[in-house]
Amino acid sequence: MTCISDTEYAVSELFVDDFANQRYCVFDFEATGIIPETEHITQIGAVIVENGRIQESRSFNTLVKSPKPIPAAVEQHTGINNTALEHAPALQEVYDDFLAFTKDCILVTHAGYEFDLPLLSKECRLLDLPMITNKCLDTKALFSFLHPEIQDIIWTDYLIKHYKVNDRDLRRHDALADSILIGRIFLQIMDEFLERDLRNIAFEEKVIVKRFQVVPLA
């Protein structure tokens, strides 16, 4: 990822051969806020996608104790409150288990290049943990590759509407539920690649992606 401006970044040199036959780990973080440099992880959710299916029985889900309290607006937004984190494990207590869960997988996120990966990288620096090294795909970048003509910011709700993805059975802003939702979106994106007879993901030229805009929670 290369930052272009406050509103755009570029993704290039991203390649996945025979992508339909790879094993993926779709993951999501909840946090104390939306600025990676200043906030902390409060929940990790992840699920395996393999053979064109979300393997919901193969999931990872844990709360994470934060070194700073969750603001009231974020508690309301995510449903995770400070009381719930009182006896939660610290990140360094669960991180090895998360790495083991992702082993031999290509990672998948939504807005992960902008939020989840920078957030995790910062946490790893603070705690002297090894940063995850798996290749990572972002549904925003994949969609922008397929639809360069669309100039909107690609929010999750945009992709839900575009692909007519069912989210009524999921509790939004829960890391595991959002991982399942991102997995459903990812499967639709993979179908669109295959419909275009694209068997490999190949970002040979820069793919321009609109950054999400920070909206204060009130």
UniProtKB/TrEMBL annotation:
Signal peptide: none
CDD domains: DEDDh (cd06127)
InterPro entries xref list: Ribonucl_H (IPR013520), RNaseH-like_sf (IPR012337), RNaseH_sf (IPR036397)
One Pfam family cited in the UniProt record for this chain: RNase_T
Domain Exonuclease: 23-195
UniProt keyword list: Exonuclease, Hydrolase, Nuclease
This protein's GO CC annotations: cytosol
Coiled-coil portions: none
Superkingdom per UniProt: Bacteria
Family annotation (SMART domains): EXOIII
BP term (GO), one: DNA replication proofreading
GO MF term list: 3'-5' exonuclease activity; nucleic acid binding
Protein name: 3'-5' exonuclease
Species for this entry: Paenibacillus rhizovicinus
